[in-house]
């Protein structure tokens, strides 16, 4: 697939690099330093990243979402995989919660795009390790949710390519539960040396797993 990265920081830089290693064509965009984008590989403006993309990863701070979308232009029909959490300015809490979620607010902003919420329940620190261990028998689970079946399939492929077992958590409104959960994960990741390792080890509940 061709994947456009909107926000090439900790999450976008790492996930984009892994997608490229997994064989996808990746276009990085949106960082303050051109030098940094150059180091990551093929890069351009947000508009370049979105154009012809089969999937777009949205990986900017919540406060930058409007800016990056404005620069990206028309995203009608695009699969937008968002790992962005609706964090406040000092990253201490969610500005959207309980009766809605960042993913749902985003889907309303870009109602002609197909939004999937994924990758926000994992700390960026563990992504390369998960990718390196992807051939091991037991993969860590990763939740995703969305309202459009075909875009969820695209997200599931990407999640699998990184080395996780994709777990469909249901419609986009389930992000009301996964986003606070993701915030807890992030808090755990900052506790002690083993924090990031512990934080992503969620397993499926019940069933055959
Ligand atoms: N990091 C994690 O472990 C983690 C886990 C779960 C979810 N998330 C979510 O993922 C999203 C991205 O997080 P992150 O940690 O990857 O953030 P980050 O490292 O700050 O990356 C954001 C990117 O946006 C760019 N940016 C910020 N302001 C800009 C501006 N004015 N113009 C152009 N580019 C600008 C940054 O550029 P520079 O590189 O130049 O700073 C960076 O490339 C957030 O919504 C966060 O809540 C993160």
Describe the protein in words.
By secondary structure, the protein is of the alpha/beta class. Helix content is 38%, strand content 16%. It has helices spanning 10-21, 34-40, 46-50, 65-72, 102-109, 127-132, 149-162, 175-189, 195-199, and strands at 2-6, 25-29, 55-58, 79-82, 114-118, 141-146, 165-168. α1 links the parallel β1 and β2 (25-29). The two termini are 29 Å apart. The mean pLDDT is 93. Residues 7-12, 30-33, 36, 59-62, 64, 83-85, 87, 120, 123-124, 182, 186 line the site of NADP nicotinamide-adenine-dinucleotide phosphate.
Strand arrangement, major sheet: 2-1-3-4-5-6-7
From the alpha carbons, calculate the radius of gyration and give it in angstroms: 16 Å
The topology string of helices and strands comes to EHEHHEHEHEHEHEHH
Structural class, by secondary structure, is alpha/beta
Helix residue percentage: 25-40%
């Amino acid at each position: 697939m061709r994947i456009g990265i909107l926000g090439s920081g900790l999450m976008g830089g790492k996930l984009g690099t892994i997608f490229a290693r997994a064989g996808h064509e990746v276009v990085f965009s949106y960082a303050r330093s051109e030098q940094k984008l150059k180091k990551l590989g093929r890069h351009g403006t947000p508009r370049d990243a979105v154009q012809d993309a089969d999937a777009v990863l949205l990986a900017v701070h919540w406060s930058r979402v409007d800016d990056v979308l404005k620069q990206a232009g028309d995203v009608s029909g695009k699969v937008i995989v968002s790992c962005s959490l609706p964090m406040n300015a000092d990253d201490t809490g969610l500005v959207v919660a309980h009766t809605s979620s960042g993913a749902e607010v985003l889907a309303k902003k870009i109602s002609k795009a197909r939004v999937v919420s994924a990758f926000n329940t994992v700390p960026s620190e563990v992504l390369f390790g998960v990718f390196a261990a992807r051939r091991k028998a037991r993969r860590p689970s990763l939740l995703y949710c969305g309202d459009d079946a075909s875009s969820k399939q695209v997200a599931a492929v990407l999640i699998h390519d990184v080395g996780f077992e994709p777990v469909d958590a249901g419609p986009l409104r389930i992000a009301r539960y996964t986003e606070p959960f993701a915030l807890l994960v992030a808090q755990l990741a900052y506790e002690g040396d083993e924090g990031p390792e512990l934080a992503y080890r969620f397993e499926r509940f019940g069933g055959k797993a």
